[in-house]
Amino acid sequence: MSIYRLLFICVATLIITVAFGAEPASPTPRETRAPTKEAKVTFNAVHVDGPYIAMTFDDGPSATLTPKLLDILAAHHIKVTFFVLGENVTEHPEIVARAAREGHEIASHSWSHPNFAKMSLESVRSQLQRTDDAINNATGKRPTLFRPPYGSITEREKHWIHDEFGYDVILWDVDPLDWKRPGPAIVRSRILKETRPGSIVLSHDIHPGTIEAMPSTLDQLEAKGFKFVTVSELLAMASPVTPYPKAEAVGKTAAKAAPPAVPGSSPGD
Question: Whole-number mean pLDDT of the chain?
Fold first, then answer.
């Protein structure tokens, strides 16, 4: 064997060894992040493990009716949440101070009850800031909750308000339509019919019929076993909702469990 042929074989062997023996470099895995679940900022009701509800009263304080309501609440040892108007707070700061002193929650309902969905963000800011300051002056504490007048608010405004002021936006799931003044008996029956554990009950402490309805309404809610908390306390009690089984899985289970059909029979026999 010539020296050239031997040299060729050695070089060829080396090339084959390098080509087949080297492991290809693994690509660097890209970092992936799970999508962040957007924080909930709006609440109509809360899923709770227990018979807890939040009574709420809007548009006050009223010079005559709110003190009467506070007397009723004190007699029942019940704490509620007042969504107050800033312009009314400045007229009756002593009533708001009393409510806060007696353990009730004071929250913002705007300065003068405009329709937020039709306003600029600067106008919204003015409404909220003036009310925030009025509540702080009366109670020494700034609000953490906001209810839009008429429940009217855009998605953009909800998140902007939450980011700018730190407020949760509170709506409701029980509405007796007491602002239409249907009479105390109807206000009471609507609240009793619609209230469930975790409910946020809407009413107004500026209508005489609402105040008249409250003693018997609270008595009957207590008789049903409901326990009263402020909205912030209700939010703190929130528990995860147990998801229902998928419809497909339920269908398959039902199909397996169903007895064979009997000729001539029909559902409901």
Answer: 84
pLDDT at 127 over 80: yes
> Using one digit for the tens of pLDDT, what is the confidence trace for 30-76?
333 333 344 689 999 999 999 999 999 999 999 999 999 999 999 99
pLDDT of residue 265: 34
Q: Which structural domain, as residue segments, surrounds residue 112?
A: 46-236
Q: Pairing state of beta strands 227-228 and 145-146?
A: unpaired
The pLDDT assigned to 180 comes to 97
What values do phi and psi take at 51, rounded to 5?
Answer: -85, 45
Q: How far apart are CA 66 and CA 35, in angstroms?
A: 46
Residue 255 falls within a domain, yes or no?
no
User: Who's near 57: CB < 8 A, 6+ residues apart?
Assistant: 66, 69, 80, 81, 82, 83, 203, 204, 205, 210
Within a domain: residue 16?
no
pLDDT of residue 240: 83
Predicted local confidence at residue 41, as pLDDT? 93
Number of domains in the chain: 1
* Residues tagged active-site: 58, 204
Exposed e or buried b per residue across 201-221, where buried means at least 16 C-beta atoms within 10 angstroms of its C-beta: bbbbbbbebbbbbbeebbeeb
Look-up of token digits 């018997």: 216
Residue 262 lies in a domain: no
pTM for the full model? 0.77
151 in a domain, yes or no?
A: yes
Tell me if 228 sits within 8 A of 199, measured CB to CB.
Answer: no
Distance CA 232, CA 83 (A): 12
The CATH number assigned to the domain holding 60 equals 3.20.20.370
| CA distance linking residue 168 with residue 162, whole number of Å | 6
